[in-house]
Amino acid sequence: MDPLTQLAFNQHVILKLPSGNWKIVELKPNASISLGKFGAFNVDDIIGYPLGTTFEIYYEEEAETDNRDKNKIPVGKVRVMTESESVHNVTSSANNMNLVNIGNQVQGLTMEQIEELKKQSVSGEQIIAKMIEAHGSFDKKTVHSQQKYLNRKKQKFAKHFTAEYLSGSRMLQFLLEKGDTQRVLDLSQETMGMLLNLANIRSNGTYLCVDETGGLLVYFLLERMFGGDNGSTEKGRIVVVHENEHANLDLLKFSNYSDKFVREYVKTVSLLDFFEPPSLSEVESAFTPLPKEEAYALKAGKKNAYYRRLKWYNNQLEAISLATQVQYDALVCASTLYLPQLVPRLAEHVHGSRPVVCYAQFKEPLLELAHSLYDDLRFLAPSILETRYRPYQTVRGKLHPVMTMRSGGGYLLWSHRVLPAEEPEATVS
Amino acid sequence: MSAFSEYRDVIKEGELVLVWISRDNIKPIKVDSNETFNTRYGSFPHKLMIGKPYGSQIAIRTKGSNKFAFIHVLQPTPELWTLSLPHRTQIVYTPDSSYIMERLNCSPRTKAIEAGTGSGSFSHAFARTVGHLYSYEFHKPRYEEALAEFEEHGLIHHDKNVTITHRDVCANGFSIRSSDVTSHKFNEGEGSVTIGANAVFLDLPAPWDAIPHLDSVISKNEKVGLCCFSPCIEQVDRTIEALNKHGWDDLQMVEIQGRQYESRRQMVRTMDDAIERLRDVKRRKNEGLERRKRMCDNILNDQPQEEINDEKRPTTEKTKFNPFGKGSRIKEGDTAYKWKQVTKIEPEIKSHTSYLTFAFKVVNKTRDEDQVKSELDSL
C-alpha cells in the first residue's frame, strides 16, 4: 500500500464525519474504529482504497442485542458510497405559504420510535425516509427547505465517513474545530499558505524555525519539503530553536513521518545553545571518540556508556555547527517572544537575499518589529500582510457568502535579509 | 539547477538577478560584466555585483552631484518575480496563489496542470514546489514568450520539471502528443506524455469546456484537487454545473482578500498640551490688548511722543509653547516629539481578484483485494 495515495496500515488518517466534525485515527490492522452514533467499522475493510474515499457503514441483519454491554457500538460493514440521492417520490411546494410551525407535533414518529429504529441499526437513509413519511407537512416545504431538512437529518442519522490524507491543513482544521485556537496561535490555512510561499519553502533548503504551535509549523514545512514521503530523496533540514529545555513538537506524533526521518531532518537547539554554543575545545576535552575497532572491543557495560557519550559528543558538534556555521535559507517564526529582540538576532544567521517571515496572532507585535527592522539596514522593506478567505455556500442559484464563520488568522511580516554596504567615500572632483 | 531551484551564495557572471530599487520597482537583469544598470538615481556597473554575496547592497556616488545611491541585488524567488512583473497583465498574486497551492496540498509529489500559462507568474510558484508542472497556453505569442522565459529561467532544461504546450485545452484537451507544439522532448517511440496529474488549476474564461477533458489526464487512483479561477459569478455558476455533471465532489467556492499595511507613526498630542497652548495664546493676546489700551490712553491724554514711540508697534512675541510643532514641517518620527506606532492600509487594495472554485475527485474507488489479502496474511 502507498500511504500517500491509499489507506494503509499503521497510518494516521483523518475522518470526516456526517456532523462535519473531524477525527484523527490510526489504522491498526485487525482493529475496529468507533465513530459513536455514526457507527463502527473494521480497519481491514477500508485498507487499500484511495485516500479521500467515502464509506457507508451498514448493518445487514438486526444487530444481536448484547445485554452485557449496551453502550458498545456494533461494528458494521462498509461499502463505498456514491453520490447520495436527493428526495424522491415526494411533492414539494413552490413557497412556504402553507407551512405552519407547530413544532414537534408535525413529526408522527415519537422519540421512542426513532430510538427504536436506531437500535435496530437500520441505515440512516431508511430512518430519514421513515421520518419524511411520518412528517405532517413535508410536502408543504419548498424543494430548498426539503433539502435543508434532509441535510440536517443526515448530520444526525447518516452513517458514513470520508477517510482523508492528514495534511498540514487538515491537522490545522482539526485543531481549530476542536477548540485549540490558542494552541495554534489562531493561525488560518490561508495565512499558513502565504507564509510557506513568502518564505520560499521547498526541498533542499535549510530553514531556521521558531515554532510555538506544538509542531504544526514544522509539519507544514515538512509537507512542503518532502510531501509526506518517508522515502523521499529530497534533501533539506529544519532547525527548530526553542525557549524551553526541550522543543515541543507534539503534533508530529500524528504525522506519518518515522521517528528516524524526523530525527534526520528536524534538528532542535535551545535558544541558549544557539546563541551560546559550547566551544569546540570544551566538547573535545570532555570526550575523545575511540577508533571503531577499539569501541567494538569494549565490554558490554562500558560499551553502552561509551555510545551514550559518543551520541552526546556528536550532538554537541552538530549544535556548534548549526549555531556557528550554517547560513539559513529562511527564518520562519511563529513565536510570542519579544520580536524586536528575537528576530534580528536569529536573522544574523540567515543568508543574504533570503526571506524572513514572522507570524503573529496580533498586528501590534509585528508593527513594533517592522519599525525596528526599518531602522536596521540588514532588512529590506519589511511589510505587514494579512490574508483572509471568505467561503461561499456553493450551490447553483443560491451562491452567497456563508452567514457566519470563524474569524481570525493573524498577520505576517515579510522582509528579506540584506547585506548593507559601506557608504562610498565622496570622490574629490 | 536554476536561479529558482537552488540557493546561491555569490553573484556570478551570466546569472539572472533581481535588482531592488524600491518596493514597486524591481528589475530582472542578467549579470554581464560589460553592462551597466542605469536608474534615475545613478548608474551601477554589473562589475560591482560580481563576486558579492546575494542580498548585497551596491552603493555608488553619483557622477554629477556626488550623492550616495544604492540598490540591492537579490536572487529571484517566485514571489519576488511576481512583484517585478508590470501590473498591466493579468497576474495571479501571492495571496491567491499561495492559498491555492496549500489547498491543493502541493509538494514534491504533486503533478500539476495549469491552463493557461498567462504571465507565467503562478507557473514559477508551482515549479518551485511541485514535482512536475504541465502548463498550457492557447495564445501563440504568449506561449512563445512564456517558453522563452521558462527556458531562460532554467525551468525546462535545468530543472526539467516544467512542460509547456501550445494548446486550446477547451477545444482539444490536455493530452500531449509528439505532433504537438510543446517543450516536451519525445524519446524514440514515445507517442504521448503520461501526465497523471493530481492537482489542476484552470485560469480560463470557460473552464466548463475544459473540465470534461480532465478525466483522461488526471491520476486515477488517488484524490485529485481542482481549482477554477474566474472573476465573474456567472462563470462560477456554469463551472459548478460542469463539475457536478462530471463527478467532482466537495465543491467550495471562496474568495481571498489580501491586504498590506504600512508601518507609520502618529504624533501623540495630549489634551493638556492643547489647553496649555491655548492658555499661552490667550496670555499673549491679553498682553497685546493691554499694550494697545495703554497706547490709546496715551494718545487721548496727550502724553509726550517719546513714550508713545516706545509702544507704537506692539510686537507679537513668537509662540513660546508649541508642543505639536505647528507651522513647521515635522518629519514623521522626529525624536523631539512623542509618537504612537500605527498601521495604515495601502491606499488602493485589490478588492476582487477572482472567485476560486475548488472541487475534488477520486476516479477509481476500488481496491485490489488480492493485495489487501496478501498484506493481511503477511502480518
UniProtKB/TrEMBL annotation, chain A:
InterPro entries: TRM6 (IPR017423)
GO BP term, pick one: tRNA methylation
One GO CC annotation: nucleus
Transmembrane segments: none
Alphabetical UniProt keywords: Nucleus, tRNA processing
Places the protein is found: Nucleus
Molecular-function GO terms, alphabetical: tRNA (adenine(58)-N1)-methyltransferase activity
Protein family membership: Belongs to the TRM6/GCD10 family.
Protein name: tRNA (adenine(58)-N(1))-methyltransferase non-catalytic subunit TRM6
From TrEMBL, chain B:
GO molecular function: tRNA (adenine(58)-N1)-methyltransferase activity
Gene3D superfamilies listed in its UniProt record: 3.10.330.20, Vaccinia Virus protein VP39
Location in or out of the cell: Nucleus
Amino acids binding S-adenosyl-L-methionine: E137, D168, D203
Gene Ontology BP annotations: tRNA methylation
Coiled-coil parts of chain: 264-291
Limits of the tRNA (adenine(58)-N(1))-methyltransferase catalytic subunit TRM61 C-terminal domain: 70-360
Catalytic activity: adenosine(58) in tRNA + S-adenosyl-L-methionine = N(1)-methyladenosine(58) in tRNA + S-adenosyl-L-homocysteine + H(+)
A Pfam family assignment: GCD14
Keywords, alphabetical: Coiled coil, Methyltransferase, Nucleus, S-adenosyl-L-methionine, Transferase, tRNA processing
UniProt biased composition (Basic and acidic residues): 310-320
Gene Ontology CC: nucleus; tRNA (m1A) methyltransferase complex
EC number(s) stated in the UniProt entry for this protein: 2.1.1.220
Sequence segments annotated as region (Disordered): 304-327
Biological role: Catalytic subunit of tRNA (adenine-N(1)-)-methyltransferase, which catalyzes the formation of N(1)-methyladenine at position 58 (m1A58) in initiator methionyl-tRNA.
Family from the record: Belongs to the class I-like SAM-binding methyltransferase superfamily. TRM61 family.
Name of this protein: tRNA (adenine(58)-N(1))-methyltransferase catalytic subunit TRM61
Species for this entry: Torulaspora delbrueckii (Yeast)
Gene that encodes it: TDEL0H01110
